[in-house]
Specification:
alpha+beta; 5-stranded antiparallel beta sheet; 9 helices; globular
């Protein structure tokens, strides 16, 4: 099914207009429904090692394909990817670190962590990383984790944030604006008979990373 999704998205990229989309709306609806079923399977599999997301529904994890073009100079109406964010407390709208599946021709990703959190939450996460650096470093430097997720992703500050010592051994970590990792997968990855098993294995490796971050989120929300 994912092969069909990627083919649809390739065609959409070449014909990103309302006329083409409306002519192919029935096809899109079928693929969206099948994608939702796959995401639900992933949720059920992830729950086996991360029970915090038990009860999460796939429909709450899927992102809309329609772009918000109100304030964008780019008026292309549709996204050219299917995205699903699987996290407790609301799926795609959650503040919590979770698991992200990104399907886009030539740019498929498996990802996790916190992407551009609220500035106050970001400050809290940075402080917790600083205070518990040995624990956090052990997570991201674990060989099995690093083999899949070699580095953090996203924008960084030019220098360490105010309030932290400039000679901190891991000062580069505190400069990140997100605490997110990802692994790129070729389109052919999803042709494999065991792609879901492999995906679940990649997501399972994220568990200690997400739990560390979510402890900070829970403290930020006053739940610890």
């Amino acid at each position: 099914m994912i092969k069909q999704v990627l083919q649809f998205l390739k065609e959409l990229e070449q014909n990103n207009n309302r006329e083409w989309f409306h002519a192919n709306k029935e096809r899109y609806d079928v693929l969206k429904k099948e994608h939702q079923a796959i995401v639900q399977q992933l949720i059920n599999r992830i729950t086996l090692f991360d029970p915090d997301i038990a009860g999460l529904e796939a429909k709450d994890c899927l992102f809309r394909i329609y772009r918000d073009i109100r304030f964008s100079p780019n008026k292309v109406p549709y996204k050219t990817h299917f995205g699903a964010y699987m996290a407790t407390q609301g799926g795609r709208s959650s503040l919590k670190a979770g698991y992200y599946l990104h399907l886009e021709p030539g740019n498929c990703l498996l990802s996790g962590g916190l992407w551009i959190p609220d500035p106050k939450l970001l400050k809290k996460v940075r402080q917790d990383i600083y205070d518990h650096i040995d624990e956090f470093a052990a997570i991201i430097e674990k060989p099995s984790f690093k083999a899949i997720y070699p580095e953090l992703e996203g924008e960084t500050l030019k220098r360490i944030p105010v309030g932290f010592p400039a000679d901190f051994k891991y000062e580069w970590l505190l400069r990140y604006k997100s605490f997110c990792v990802n692994t790129c997968k070729p389109d052919s990855f999803f042709d494999r008979h065991d792609w879901m098993d492999q995906t679940v294995a990649c997501f399972k490796e994220l568990l200690p990373f997400n739990r560390f971050l979510n402890y900070s989120v829970d403290e930020f929300q006053g739940k610890v």
